[in-house]
From TrEMBL:
<dbReference type="Pfam" id="PF00484">
    <property type="entry name" value="Pro_CA"/>
</dbReference>
<protein>
    <recommendedName>
        <fullName>carbonic anhydrase</fullName>
        <ecNumber>4.2.1.1</ecNumber>
    </recommendedName>
</protein>
<dbReference type="GO" id="GO:0008270">
    <property type="term" value="F:zinc ion binding"/>
</dbReference>
<feature type="binding site">
    <location>
        <position position="41"/>
    </location>
    <ligand>
        <name>Zn(2+)</name>
    </ligand>
</feature>
<feature type="binding site">
    <location>
        <position position="43"/>
    </location>
    <ligand>
        <name>Zn(2+)</name>
    </ligand>
</feature>
<keyword id="KW-0479">Metal-binding</keyword>
<keyword id="KW-0862">Zinc</keyword>
<dbReference type="InterPro" id="IPR001765">
    <property type="entry name" value="Carbonic_anhydrase"/>
</dbReference>
<comment type="similarity">
    <text>Belongs to the beta-class carbonic anhydrase family.</text>
</comment>
<dbReference type="InterPro" id="IPR036874">
    <property type="entry name" value="Carbonic_anhydrase_sf"/>
</dbReference>
<feature type="binding site">
    <location>
        <position position="99"/>
    </location>
    <ligand>
        <name>Zn(2+)</name>
    </ligand>
</feature>
<feature type="binding site">
    <location>
        <position position="102"/>
    </location>
    <ligand>
        <name>Zn(2+)</name>
    </ligand>
</feature>
<dbReference type="GO" id="GO:0004089">
    <property type="term" value="F:carbonate dehydratase activity"/>
</dbReference>
<keyword id="KW-0456">Lyase</keyword>
Length: 200
């Protein structure tokens, strides 16, 4: 018996999903209803846990995911996504949320490069990148402490020259087992023009 590939299995499921109109329960527009943008980790444990732990439903927030919830460059794609969420999609608060037990904690470039070589990557080509000014070791190295990493990413957001002064920035760490959120930094970047919450 021939086993379906992962792609074939997903496409078969998707055909039934669309035919049965299961998409209707996820309907939302492109603007985040709670006016927040979240940078978090790509860890599989957070896919549904984070939403439920924060009382978010589909359409409530813009979610940006990468390995470790790290902003490694102030003018990279992660920061661009945050700024687009603010200026084009109406986000008013930024949440940087790391998690305990992150795979980026203690990640070594040597470990990644060894596995890459075992998978057939030519290390001579990788080593040549150093001469082109690419620091592959830095690129592939994780962090030692999730709290410090989140604080660093929060600082990158707060100090960005394109961040409006009325946007609030928060740093948190979530427990991937229980969903408990630990607050590291809150309400940063409240400038003179910051909007105070309105009474309901």
């Amino acid at each position: 018996m021939i086993q379906m590939s992962k792609l074939e299995s997903i496409l078969a499921f998707n055909e039934a999903f669309v035919a049965n109109k299961e998409y209707e329960r996820f309907k939302a527009d492109k603007f985040p209803q709670k006016k927040i943008v979240i940078l978090t980790c790509m860890d599989t444990r957070l896919v549904e846990l984070l939403h439920n732990a924060m009382n978010l439903k589909n359409g409530d927030a813009k979610i940006i995911r990468n390995a470790g919830a790290v902003i490694s460059h102030p003018f990279g794609s992660i920061m661009r996504s945050i700024l687009v969420a603010i200026y084009e999609l109406g986000a008013e608060e930024v949440f940087v949320i790391g998690h305990y037990g992150c795979g980026m904690t203690g990640l070594s470039a040597n470990s990644v490069l060894q596995k890459a070589e075992e998978r057939g990557i030519d290390m001579d080509e990788i080593n040549a990148l150093q001469y082109a000014g690419v620091d592959v070791n830095k690129f592939l190295t994780g962090f030692e402490n999730v709290t410090e990493s989140v604080n660093h990413s929060v600082d990158m957001v707060i100090n960005h020259p394109l961040l409006p002064k009325d946007v609030r920035v928060h740093g948190l760490v979530i427990d991937p087992e229980t969903g408990k959120l630990d607050l590291l930094q809150r309400d940063l970047q409240k400038g003179a023009n910051a909007k105070e919450p309105q009474d309901a």
